[in-house]
Amino acid sequence: MSNEQFSGHSPDPVDPPPGSHTTPLPPTSAPAGDMPPGTAGSTPPATPTTTEAPLKPTAAERANTIVKKVVIGLIIAALLVITYFILEAFLPRWWAGQIGRRVDGSMASGVWTGLVLGVVCTFVPLLLFVFAFLSRSRMRNVPAIGFAVLGIIVAIPNLLTLAVVAGGGNGAHAGERIFDVDAPGFRAATLWGVIIGIVLAIAVGWFIWRYRRRGRELAATRPAKDKKKKK
User: Fold this and answer.
1) What is the mean pLDDT of residues 140-156?
2) How confident is the model at residue 218, as a pLDDT?
3) Which of 14, 94, 174, 181 is most exposed, with minimal Cβ within 10 Å?
């Protein structure tokens, strides 16, 4: 027996004879599970995309929504009508009583009170409405809304007097009788005050319009003057 059977070493590889060609074996690739993440050539798993369209409301749901809106609108309309009749019966009588106690049957006091309320409660609201118009589209129309609300509040005395004079309910008729007895001259003086307030508001509005127009003209001529100075 040869010594190679008892030795623990394998025989040395035999070199290929000269002139022979050997084809190299391709490298064996590791299993997909053994490859570390981020290895070049690996493709990330595709994320599932949802292409489902949003569900549209059914006809029953749309009808239910419309019915709810109609019911809410009817409730609001009923509340407004009830409020109108309550105020129509109460406010004219209350306002006439306040003016009657203030004037106390004096013609001079009635004329003076009517003129002051007519002028102030007409001129100031119209001026505030002009400011509301000029300040629109600024800070999301917050100043415009504020001016408009303030103008309506200031005009309330004239609106109450108009409710007494032009109203047809029992409260308006009672207010007219109070004006005749306790506040003589108040209604006619209020009308003249309203006319004076409108004239003043038109004059001030025209002045503001001229001032703003002059400012725009000056702003338009400034670039031309600056170009001439640079030349």
Assistant:
1) 87
2) 78
3) 14
- Report the Cα 213 to chain-centroid distance in Å: 29
155 membership: H or E segment, kind and range: none
- What mean pLDDT, rounded, does the chain reach? 78
Residue pair 113/103 in contact by the 8 Å Cβ criterion: yes
The sign of the dihedral angle between the CA atoms of 123, 128, 134, 136 is negative
% of the chain surpassing 70 pLDDT? 71
**Number of Cβ atoms within 10 Å of the Cβ of 106:** 15
Under DSSP, the state recorded for 20 is -
Q: Which residues, other chains included, contact 151 with Cβ-Cβ below 8 Å and sequence gap of 6+?
A: 124, 125, 126, 127, 128, 129, 132
Q: Nearest to residue 150, comparing CAs of 136, 171, 134, 130?
A: 130
